[in-house]
Amino acid sequence: MRVTSSMMTTNTLRDLNLSLGRLQKTQTQLSTGRQITKASDNPTGTATAMGLRKQLNRADQHSRSLEDAAGWLGTADSALTSGLDLLARAKELAIAGANSGGISDPNARIAMATELRSIRSQLLGLANTTYGSRSIFNGTASGAAYSSTGVYNGNTGSVVRDVAAQDSLAINLTGTQVFGTAGGAVGDVFEVLDRLATAVQAGNDTAIAAEHLNLDSATQLMSAATVDIGSRAAKIDSIRSRTADQVLRLRDQLSNIEDVDPASAILTEKMQENSYQAALQVAAKILPMSLLDFLR
Amino acid sequence: MTGISSLYTALSGMRAQSRVLDLTGHNVANAATPGYHRQRAELQAVGNSTPGLFAGTGVRGYGVNVIGTTQSLDVLYEARAVREEGARSQMALASSTLAQLQSAMPEPTENGLGAQLDEFWGAWSDVANQPDSAGVRTQLLAKANSLTASLHSTAAQITAIRDASMSQVAALGNDATGLAAQIATLNRAILVDPDHSLDLKDQRGVLLTNLAKLTGAVARPAESGQIDVYIGGRTIVSGANSFALDGTTGTLRWASDGATVAAPSGDAAALAATITDIVPRYTAALDAIASQLVTSVNALHTTGYDQAGATGHQFFDGTKLTAATITLSTDVAGQPSKIAAGAPVLPGPLAPGPLDGEQARAIALLAGSATGADSQYHSLITNLAVETSVAFQRAELQDQVADSAKQQADSVGAVSVDEEMANLTAAQRGYEASARVLTAVDDMLAFLIEHTGVVGR
Fold it and tell me: Which stretches of B90-224 are assigned E, i.e. beta strand?
């Protein structure tokens, strides 16, 4: 092939351009810290990265829901634990009242009855426990779960949190599930306490014994609810740690795909810089040369 | 017999060598002229090939004659270089258009449409967690607004790419018409003055390459050194006549009858592909995402219940199904309490409690739908990335092909300064030698005149 000086110039220019282009690409990677600055740099990597980002965002969302669920369940748990303590004290009072068939002092019975009524109102307070501004034993109804007279305002709606992909969990128990159903022969725990207080005040041993039994079943209902809440909290805890692991893993994968490995990028950059300099030097030596330099 | 005629033989040598020197100067001067092909003087010895019956011994020459000037060029190589230039500019433009499209939808980033979709669904999930919070509901409306704004601006950027391409077509129509007219003018000049046509042909070659870059035009040789130029089989230059193109409508047409120009390559082909294929395709894909978003969210939202227990609200305006128009419906815009977070209680359907967030939760789960807006967007981005990266690879490859075609053509036609210097030296020596012959013959004649006979003294 016949070689002319213009061909050499064109070739050299093109090669220099290519070399500079490679250098620029590496420098963009280094300065942005990213391997994929445009989707077309690596279509497969982009698809994977987008999928990972989506998973990561959803995992973040799940983390928020998990925090919320954990807070809700913790609130419910402590309310129920206090409720069980109150019921235990009510039971003591019921036993004392029953054994006090002989107690003639009406003031003592009145004091016991008063304490029972106070337990009832404390329990009402617990039943109206809120998480944020929301009553947690109220189903999906708004406002307080129980009125001051002990009427349940809530419904049977469940409160569900998405805690993981394809996994959701109801985090609430309704008032009836925890405190029993109002009305009927037995009624809810508030009615039981009400009647117990009346029976203790009246010294009616038969009634006290009957309400004592009712109190036991109310306690069983509440402790079952506590266990239920506790097991859900345990599940939430295990999912939380799993989600945290997952987030770390996803970030790691995303970084592998998107981020530049600085060591290798810097090395590549140095090599490209050297080859660019070499190309420039060679071009500077060869291009100006012609026969003219040697003809006198 | 050496005599007066030898003077003329020497003179013809000096003339020929000075013509060679002339052309060498011309070549060197044009070493960097685009499209220039080196020229050579064609020399021929002048002799009477049939010696006379009583002529002396051997064949006597009468010097040298310049019979013409030729150009070094290979027609096939030149045609190939022109064709590859057309393909090169087509692919370069196509890949840069796709790169523009890609920058309208920057992924993977923290603030692209993908991230905005994630935030939108996340906001639904937050409403599901706290259906009673006006702040969270307001936040959802804000996220929805920023999502629709992003869709609007992406759609607008894609439209802008199409509009820019259309105005480029208009400019291209004018340029191509002008180039064709210049080629026709040069054709006429070459016809009129064939003796001085070489440099005109080079100029015409440059114009042809430019026309090929614009439209993928090809040339075929015609009578008397003229060329005819065709685009997609239809004549744009025929001898001294040229035809006009019109791109003012955004489509390149023949001005005479309005037929569409079928440009096989060049910018025109890339622009046509952008306007009729690439932009409509990606606009449709983006519209499909918007439409999917509207219908899937609305399907759930209209059956859901707001805080007041009312149902039947649209979330997005159900009549605006494109990326450029998608907007919140008047049912919920600016009214966070109207967001239907509550799921119907079945059978019934009955309104749920005011703090129910189940419908919002169901809407948030649309994020993971295999046929949902998100997966459509992912495949849009992946398709665009693949198409762009393929376009860049093809453009790079075509760059090399076109460069090598140009080199092949240059290897025949381009000026080599070294070669010219060698020719220069040879011609100079030839000139000097011819001059020496002249002097020698002159001396001989002078000797004859001075020293023989006395007649006329």
Answer: 218-221
pLDDT tens for B328-339 read 999 999 999 999
User: How many whole angstroms from its chain centre is CA A70?
Assistant: 7
**Mean pLDDT calculated for residue range B249-264:** 94
pLDDT band at residue B456, thresholds of 50, 70 and 90?
low
Domain map (residue ranges) of chain B = 4-72+415-451, 78-171+270-402, 177-261
Alpha helices in B218-344 (DSSP H): 266-273, 279-301
Q: Dihedral of the CA atoms B84, B87, B93, B99 (nearest 10)?
A: -100
Pick B410's closest partner by Cβ from A6, A40, A68.
A6
Which residue, B280, B291, B266, is CA-closest to B371? Answer: B291
Calpha distance A269→B394 (Å, rounded)? 26
Q: How far apart are CA A4 and CA B72, in angstroms?
A: 13
The enclosing H or E element of B245 equals: strand B245-246
Contacts of A132 (CB under 8 A, 6+ apart): B130, B132, B133
Residue B182, φ and ψ in degrees, nearest 5? -65, -40
Q: Which CATH class is domain A52-254?
A: mainly alpha
Q: Look up tokens 């449709």; give the residue.
A: B284
d(CA A123, CA A80): 9
Question: Taking CB atoms and an 8 Å cutoff, what residues of chain A touch B130?
Answer: 68, 132, 134
Interface check A22 vs B, CB under 8 A? no
Q: Is A251 on the interface with B (CB under 8 A)?
A: no
Q: What is the pLDDT of residues B215-255, one digit of tens each?
A: 999 999 988 889 999 999 999 999 999 999 999 999 999 99
From the list B125, B356, B418, the residue facing A291 with the nearest CB is B418
Domain ranges of chain A: 52-254
Q: Which helix (H) or strand (E) holds B35?
A: none
CA distance A194 to A199: 9
Number of Cβ within 10 Å of residue B234's Cβ equals: 11
For residues B122-144, give the mean pLDDT. 93
Using a CB–CB cutoff of 8 Å, tell me whether B121 touches chain A. yes
**B101: distance to nearest CA of chain A, Å?**
11
Q: What does the alpha-carbon distance between residue B24 and residue A105 come to, in Å, rounded to a whole number?
A: 139
Tokens of A174: 């309704």
CA count, 13 A, side-chain hemisphere, B70: 8
* CA A65/CA A67 separation, integer angstroms: 5
* Contact yes or no for B339/B170 (Cβ under 8 A): no
Q: Does B415 reach chain A within 8 Å, measured CB to CB? A: yes
Distance CA(B341)–CA(B300), nearest Å, equals 10
Q: Which single residue is written with the structure tokens 């629709």?
A: B148
**Structure confidence by residue, pLDDT tens digits, A146-184:** 998 888 988 888 899 998 888 899 999 999 999 988 888
